[in-house]
Amino acid sequence: MKKLGIFWGLWLGAGWMAVVAQQTATDSLQKRTSKVVAQMAPDSSRLDSLKKTKLGKDIVAKNNQKSASLQKHSPRKAAYYSLMLPGLGQAYNRQYWKMPFVYGGLGAVVFFIRYYHVRYQDFLWPYYFSYDGTTGKQLRTEAEVFLRSQNQTRTLTLDQITKGKDFYRRYRDLNLLLVVGVWALAAVEANVSAHLKTFDMSEDLSFRFEPDTYNNSFTGQVYGVKVVVPIK
After folding, report:
1. Residue 11 has pLDDT above 50, yes or no
2. Longest Cα–Cα distance in the chain
3. What is the domain count for the chain?
4. Predicted confidence (pLDDT) per residue in 153-187, tens digit
5. Is residue 111 in a domain?
6. Each residue of 205-221: pLDDT tens digit?
7. Which domain holds residue 175?
8. Residue 13 covered by a domain
């Protein structure tokens, strides 16, 4: 009976010690977890101190400079410059790679204007000398015309000369209108591009760079930059 009492006493003592050890371990784990969470939690004072560093000041200064330059950029000026001189609006927007397309389009149209105008002159003078300038009476029914596409002179009827003259004049005038169209299109493009450059996108729609600080048990406090991408 005495041995049985000793056995039960030892068994209860061992159980009580196990409970105490488990409770101690749990308390210790909770304290360490709370400490790590506290270290990883954002600290406004640390962020403020980071913004006072050279890295934070440089980021803030660049953002302010960019905002100021965008506010000074005028879409109206971009359109006016482009109307004054084709491509000047694109240069004002600092989109220099667009200028070759503007001048390339105008150059192509000017080339066709000259192309059709020269051929129009080839048909105009034979047609003009086929009539009397005073009475308007027809003097002849045929005339010689130099055909540049064939590099030869041929005798054509007055009806053929009239059709050729009207054909080349029509396409020459059409290309004259295209010059105005390309010029105006360049001004519209410069105005739209300037609006897009000054368009203030909400922070909820664009990523941004912000100074950041991070703490861990191995490296301590670390300063850096983070990219914030809001997702709704």
Report:
1. no
2. 155
3. 1
4. 999 999 999 999 999 999 999 999 999 999 999 99
5. yes
6. 555 666 776 666 655 66
7. 75-201
8. no
